Amino acid sequence: MTPEGRVERLERIAKLFVRAGRRARADLRQQDEKINILINLHMQNEELFARNEERFKKNEERFRLNEERFAKNEERFAKNEERFAKNEERFAKNEERVTKQAEIILTILEFQKQTEEKFRANEKRFARTDKIFIELAESQVETGRNLKSLFKLIREVRDNNAEN
Fold this sequence. Notes:
Blueprint: H1 3-163
């Protein structure tokens, strides 16, 4: 190999080293950028995790409060169930009372119907009795007239006998 060939070869190798160096620097820059991006993302994730921790704490508190509310509601529901059971008993008793009262009312209505029928029958009897009383009164009036006429005749006969 000639000295010029060697120099050319060295130049080519130097160019390759330069290109490789440039590529390595570019790759290094890209890796730096990627590392910076990763670091930034990691910091953002840390911030998000911190915020999430706060949220989790708040949610835990909310869950605890909700559990307390649920426990109170369960107590209320149990009391309501007891009240509903008592009300059901009361409603059943009231239903029995209403049924008995309805039976009593039906019995009273039947008696009232019978009484009204008796009143109607009595009214018919009273009407007949009134008619008989009117006839009796007219008969008494007639009897009274007849008696007066009889007394008058007896007096006239006495007076005539006393004159004779």
